[in-house]
Amino acid sequence: MAKIEIRASNFNYEALQLVRGAIESKMARIRLGLEITRKKLAKFEAKYQVPSEKFISEMAAEDLFEGDMEYVEWAGEYRILQKLKEDLERLEAVEYADF
């Protein structure tokens, strides 16, 4: 868990609000990215009737109709999903030290 403290000789409440706003804005963009990525993954999962977790652990490009290109796209979207989830978890864990 991260704790954010802003220290200044003359504490500026507006600066704290700007930092919080920036973090909230980033979280909103990540949530949108998660939604878009989940929709892309859902198309692959529906097409092959396989959850992405199983695809990543058990399948190869030869298992897909469109081969390498489709494999790279599906695997890439899955990795993006994992990264976005990690980033969101880190930001949601931020605590603010109010003065």
Radius of gyration: 19 Å
Helix content: 55-70%
> Which secondary-structure class do the elements indicate?
mainly alpha
Instruction: Point out poorly predicted stretches.
Output: none
Gap between N and C termini, in Å? 19 Å
Strand order of the largest sheet: 1-2
Described by the principal axes of the CA atoms, the overall outline is: elongated
Q: Give the biggest beta sheet.
A: 2 strands, parallel
H/E series: EHHHE
Strand content: under 5%
Q: Helix count?
A: 3
Overall average pLDDT: 89
Q: Give me the count of strands.
A: 2
Walk me through this protein's architecture.
It contains three helices and two strands, in the order βαααβ. Helix 1 (13-48) packs antiparallel against helix 3. The radius of gyration is 19 Å and the shape is elongated. The chain has helices at 13-48, 52-58, 67-92, and strands spanning 3-4, 95-96. It is mainly alpha-helical and 99 residues long. A two-stranded parallel sheet has the order 1-2.
